[in-house]
Amino acid sequence: MKRNTIFYFILLFSFLLAIISTNVEAREPFACDSRDLNTKNFPFCRTDLRFTDRVNDLIGRLTLQEKVRLLVSGAAAVPRLGIKGYEWWSEALHGVSNVGPGTTFGGEFPGATSFPQVITTAASFNATLWEEIGKVVSDEARAMYNGGQAGLTFWSPNVNILRDPRWGRGQETPGEDPIVAGKYAASYVRGLQGTDDGDRLKVAASCKHYTAYDLDNWAGVDRFHFNAKVSKQDIEDTFDIPFRSCVMEGKVASVMCSYNQVNGIPTCADPKLLKGTIRDAWRLNGYIVSDCDSVGVFYDNQHYTSTPEEAAADAIRAGLDLDCGTFLGVHTENAVQRGLVKEAEINSALVNTISVQMRLGMFDGEPSKQRYGNLGPKDVCSPAHQELAVEAARQGIVLLKNHGPVLPLSPRRHRPVAVIGPNSDVTVTMIGNYAGVACGYTTPLQGIGRYTRTIHQPGCANVACRNDALFGGAINAARQSDATILVMGLDQSIEAEFRDRAGLQLPGHQQELISKVAAASKGPTILVLMSGGPVDISFAKNDPKIGAILWVGYPGQGGGAAIADILYGTHNPGGKLPMTWYPQEYLNNLPMTAMSMRSDPSTKYPGRTYRFYKGPVVYPFGHGMSYTNFIHTIAADAPTIVSVPVDGRHHSNTTTVSSKSIRVTHARCNKLSLSISVDVKNTGSKDGSHTLLVFATPPVGGGHWAPHKQLVAFEKVGVAARGVRRVRVKIHVCKYLSVVDTAGVRRIPMGEHWIHIGDVRHSVSLQPHTLGVIKT
Questions:
Q1: Signal peptide span per the entry (predicted)?
Q2: pLDDT of residue 771
């Protein structure tokens, strides 16, 4: 017995040693290995020194050839200094992804939690949720890094504006509103990078793609050749806002420049954009990286320079620090020899990249001894992480229509239920693009099956739905069921990177299937739509046989569970559309290449997004219903007059066409805000989470400067049945009540601004208060 016990402990000890050995082999130090007597005492390895001193020491030891090989995403090793090679390109748009070569799945990390696509999560309008998702994703990223299967630099999030509803990558973005996109950017980045360890980083995020990038491949025009002609006004009050917020509020460690040109200059070769705006104006503490092969694109495709050496020099001198690709690694040394770029400029680029690696702890020796060194396989796909993915989907689902009301369904009264449609039993469709390998899936059919008995018919072979061959089975299923759920919409074969849509209607014969099934259904018919971009479903909105419509975006790995929880009332829907749903006619004579945000009645140009378009819509930005009702009351102490302090050294009487305005740079903006208390009352019998959207409209006569209205604040508010919650909304005057003139100058209109919250509104008058003597 004693010998067996000793043998058992020997086996257990050997097993534990094997595990420890495996972990050490999985992630050896990137640099500064304490076991390497030749390198461990270099100053750049000393954690007691400042980052700047360590970075300068390292760069001073590198040869020109070694420096050039560090300018690319597949950075080469420097063996004589004990530095290993590093792959910069990893992705984490809505979960750790294997799109970039820096991350692989398999072994102890077969998958990672796949959250809903960003457009879906944006519909929650819940900044706390966005940050929490970032924290989970970075936990899993660090765990995979420790296991040798991921990097620490993740080129996410995508914070471009969903300017045109046809854009195939709109699904990756937080939608059409720049304030929402900016808030999302800052929140998700804070979650990814961490906020409680000074200048150190948990992982390094990157906000992309700067700037005015929202066309991939439309009508013979692709992103590699497109010159976005953008006004200073639109740059300042639309396209720059999310990136500014990402850098200045989120403290992101990187910004990625885009493929396209802006006003004739490739973004990755434009010093005004890279050095002037990102680096100097916004004070980026990090590196600027090109979209993959962008430098080669502006040489090979756009023919912006005559030689590859000139392209390399233009990019580095403009402020590019890292090339996703090989172009700079091939051509930079020759560019130096030809006198096109200085070695000192290469040093500046390396300061920015190596500083980020230092902040990540990559030069601090053994990873397991660092703050996040204990994270491992147990921290990936954990039950808590997977439940958060389902909760994120629940919060992002939008109830577009509920006539009757038809929803929620009853597991007792609606039995069986017909589940029909090409997206009714899908898996990878639910995670959209830039996804990894999910931990597992719950399809819509499986989720609904947890509540009731189902009869399943696909209706169409896929979302293309090229014929009606499978219609018969779907119609028969609807005739014999107490309720019918149609799960329709799009997938990556219709909208994706490098695949913009031609129109806004459902593909193939989907509309015909929906209408025929609804007409035949014995019970209520519910339409569930998966898509990234908006869809013109006017026919379903107006069809009395279709009682309810849900938009679920691409709801992530647990999307089917979330859809079922909404359908059966276990969760009360509270999502709101983060983009306008236009009718197909909106696209008449509207090329994707037309970048102007504002409408132009003289040319019948309709304008873009809810801020500048006033025409008919299928569903407006911010639309979303609940199973209960909420009413808003603005508290009596809401301010009616706000004084705007103006520096007397500047003009205060600069005018627009018919109203006074003050330059933001001439106002004392630091603490200038107005606060409004709002009582949100749930008048129904179900608890609910309410999305409070606060819009502002500028004074009448604001001219061509101002949006029709602008979202200025949003809050997620949980309110119990029959309960009341008071919410205090703070609106920064200079940031949210200002407008941008045609010269790109931000101004605060004086006079009566209206604050809109649901169906109530409040008037606030902004009045100048001059400090000192006014110079005229």
A1: 1-26
A2: 76
Alpha carbon distance 399, 409 (integer Å): 14
Element (H, E) at 566: helix 559-567
How far apart (Å, rounded) are the C-alpha atoms in residues 493 and 434? 14
Using alpha carbons, select from 94, 87, 291, 283 the residue that is nearest to residue 191.
94
Answer whether 68's CB lies under 8 Å from 328's CB. Answer: yes
241-248 and 178-193 helices, crossing angle to 10°: 30
- Residues 727-737 as b/e (b if ≥16 CB within 10 A, e otherwise) read bebebbbbbbb
The mean pLDDT of 233-262, rounded to a whole number, is 98
Helix (H), strand (E) counts: the chain: 21, 29
Query: Residue 323 carries which side chain, given as an amino acid letter?
Result: D
How many Å apart are CA 377 and CA 439, to the nearest integer? 12
Q: What is the DSSP string of 314-365?
A: HHHHHT--BBSSSHHHHHHHHHHHTTSS-HHHHHHHHHHHHHHHHHTTTTSS
Percentage of residues in the chain having pLDDT higher than 70: 94
- Here the tokens at position 255 are 């910004």
Q: Which of 673, 672, 675, 671 is nearest to 635 (CA)?
A: 675
Please check whether residue 576 is in contact with residue 691, taking contact to mean a CB–CB distance below 8 angstroms. Answer: yes
Mean pLDDT of 608-636: 98
Give the model's confidence band at 17: pLDDT under 50 very low, under 70 low, under 90 confident, else very high.
Answer: very low
**769 vs 142, residue with greater confidence:** 142
Q: DSSP assignment, residue 275?
A: I
**SS3 state at 733:** helix
The total of other beta-carbon atoms located within 10 Å of residue 500's CB is 25
pLDDT-derived band at 772 (thresholds 50, 70, 90) equals low
Please name the residue that has the structure tokens 């209408």.
515
- The yes-or-no answer on residue 291 being catalytic is yes
Count the residues in the chain. Answer: 776
Q: Can you tell me the distance from the alpha carbon of 259 to that of 211, in angstroms, rounded to the nearest whole number?
A: 9
Query: At 558, which amino acid appears?
Result: G
Write out pLDDT tens, residues 393-419. 999 999 999 999 999 999 999 999 999
Euclidean distance between CA atoms 455 and 504, whole angstroms: 30
Give the model's confidence band at 660: pLDDT under 50 very low, under 70 low, under 90 confident, else very high.
confident
Strand, coil or helix: 520: helix
Q: Is residue 167's pLDDT more than 70? A: yes
Query: Is residue 260 pLDDT above 50, yes or no?
Result: yes
Q: Which residue(s) pair with 347 in the sheet?
A: none
pLDDT of residue 5: 43
Q: Are strands 751-757 and 746-749 parallel, antiparallel or unpaired?
A: unpaired
- Which contacts of 307-316 are long-range, i.e. CB under 8 A and separated by 24 or more positions? 309/334, 309/335, 309/338, 309/340, 310/335, 310/340, 311/269, 312/340, 312/341, 313/340, 313/341, 314/269, 315/268, 315/269, 315/290, 316/71, 316/341, 316/345, 316/346, 316/349
Is the CB of residue 527 less than 8 Å from the CB of residue 164? no
pLDDT of residue 9: 41
Q: Can you tell me the mean pLDDT for 48-64?
A: 98
pLDDT of residue 14: 40
Which of 237, 291, 364, 741 is labelled catalytic?
A: 291
Q: What are phi and psi of 474, to 5 degrees?
A: -65, -45
